Amino acid sequence: MPSILSQKTIGFIGAGNMAQAMIQALRHNSGISADQILAADPGEHQRNLVASKFQIRSVTDNAEVFDKSDIVILAVKPQQLPSVIHELTQDPRYTENRSRKLIISIAAGIPLPTLEHHLTASLTAHAKELIVPIRIMPNTPALVGCGMSGLSRGPGVRDEDMELAMTMAGSMGKVCVLPETLMDALTALSGSGPAYLFLLAEAMIQAGTTLGISNDDALTLTVQTLKGAIALMENGGADTATLRQRVTSPGGTTAAALAILEEGGFTDLVTRAITAARDRSRELSSREPETP
Ligand SMILES: NC(=O)C1=CN([C@@H]2O[C@H](COP(=O)(O)OP(=O)(O)OC[C@H]3O[C@@H](n4cnc5c(N)ncnc54)[C@H](O)[C@@H]3O)[C@@H](O)[C@H]2O)C=CC1
Ligand SMILES: O=C(O)[C@@H]1CCC=N1
Fold it and tell me: Contact, 3 vs 30, CB < 8 A?
């Protein structure tokens, strides 16, 4: 069955890590052809990279991407977003836009009402109706089709706009629609979440090598163990606490390890870490100066 994306052009403003993961997912999971995707980035290296990796056209002109796309993904850093939007909205190709466009921001911390305000402040009432701001918070496992995205729907978003946005996010993996007020928490949990697992994996590999296992073997043992544990969480027919108890023989090896983790305040530490990420996401909306 043809996808509703099959007639759409998708433009990326910013062609960094997350944009590349999304392009990969769109190319491989949505049947989107290379000529349906366009990207703008000031960095020559990034432009050449996406052009050669995905056979897509890459340019320096953000307004050209806006002009030629039905769906525009704002994929620059949150600190860069205000100036990118300001510049874009001054361009005649923006102000004289005649077609309805979804403008999807994936930037952490920038709330939908702020996004909407900046995208539409300079437009006439009619032109405003053609700009549909949506916020999606993806994560990098999108690169392998195992992404988790949060989506918040603003006022004025029609059902057909939602269907398009859901199909796009769905090409990356699973999608969860949440109220805007929870997007900072979702960012902290699933947007940043892969990094927590990578840190745990790094620590497990390091522990394995410290105990005499080769790096290669420690990597294989760690990856397959995490994969197996996640498969059990998905298909093991029990909640995570029960699954953990099944590994933990009384007085055995797992109990010895978990006692050390609890002694170090592991659960509390994770809660504090995710809360710090949520709070940082909230801070990012306060328009900080760009950091290098
Ligand atoms: N990396 C991740 O895991 C996730 C990132 N995000 C969000 O995605 C956005 C991008 O993050 P990353 O891809 O990690 O950053 P990145 O630094 O890899 O990519 C940003 C790109 O924007 C380009 N850029 C800078 N100024 C520009 C301009 N004026 N016009 C067009 N492009 C410009 C940069 O050259 C760079 O290639 C951020 O807002 C971040 O919050 C969201 C979810 C997950
Ligand atoms: O670290 C960040 O700010 C971005 C947002 C979620 C994942 N990476």
Answer: yes
State the closest ligand 1 atom to the C-alpha of 195, by its place in the atom list counted from 1: 3
Q: Region 145-174: what's the mean pLDDT?
A: 94
CA of 139, nearest ligand number: 1
> Per-residue pLDDT averaged across 179-192, rounded?
97
* Average pLDDT of the residues of the chain: 95
> What is the side-by-side strand order in the sheet with 71-74?
57-59, 37-40, 10-13, 71-74, 101-105, 131-137, 147-152, 173-177
Q: Quick check: 244 pLDDT over 80?
A: yes
Ligand 1 atom nearest 105 alpha carbon: 39
Closest CA to 151 of 128, 131, 117, 174: 174
| pLDDT tier, 1 (very low <50, low <70, confident <90, very high otherwise) | low
Q: Compute φ and ψ for 75, nearest 5 degrees.
A: -120, 40
Q: List, as one string, the DSSP characters of 215-281.
A: HHHHHHHHHHHHHHHHHHHHHSSS-HHHHHHHH--TTSHHHHHHHHHHHTTHHHHHHHHHHHHHHHH
Identify the band that residue 2 occupies on the pLDDT scale cut at 50, 70 and 90. Answer: low
Residues with CB under 6 A from ligand 1: 13-19, 40-43, 46, 62, 75-78, 80, 84, 106-108, 137-140, 191
Sign of the dihedral through C-alpha 91, 75, 145, 158: negative
pLDDT greater than 80 at residue 4 = yes
Is the pLDDT at 57 greater than 80? The verdict is yes
Atom 3 of ligand 2, nearest CA residue: 108
Total residue length of the chain: 292
Q: Could you give the domains of the chain?
A: 10-179 (3.40.50.720), 193-284 (1.10.3730.10)
